[in-house]
Amino acid sequence: MKTLxxxxxxSSKDFLKxxxxxxxxxxxxxxxxxREVLITEIENHxxxxxxxxxxxxxxxxxxxxxxxxxxxxxxxxxKLKKSLIFIWFNAHKFLVENRFQHQNMICTGMFISExxxxxxxxxxxxxxxxxxxxxxxxASNFVFADILGSLLNEYGFQNLKLIHSELKRKxxxxxxxxxxxxxxxERLYCNLNN
Length: 194
Description:
Layout: E1 3-8, H1 17-20, E2 26-29, H2 35-43, E3 47-52, E4 54-55, E5 58-59, H3 75-78, E6 83-87, H4 91-97, E7 105-108, H5 127-155, H6 160-175, H7 179-185, E8 188-190
């Protein structure tokens, strides 16, 4: 299976590299590319992983006022793929708002991966308190990425429902001592049914 990894954005999401480092037959794109090249790459691959900085409207463009790199117009090309993984802040809402469904898909919701996002745990958190969460966020990031990467390496992309189940089972161990992991655990979705 040929896999396209779109890992776009700044170095704050470098921890995600462990998800795809062992995947065979992969193409990794980490820079912004023209829309027509993006579409051709999507068409030429079976499985797609999209990760980076984004929100409810997709994966953001290179600069603040740029059009989104991944937006709703790309979904028509993605629905034909065998397997899809979407990892960015509120990827789930982007898919729900666009009524996108797929039978072999994993996505994240409002996933905390940076210290300033700790405000979503409690809107009363003050800046000095954010430092308290930094180690929890780092642990959550690396454990999540390492588990997902090892599961993809072991099982491939054929059954993302199984991978989602195993990811949640293994990631749950971190929730015992990490409230960021508790928050993120509740925002791991499969086929938009869970």
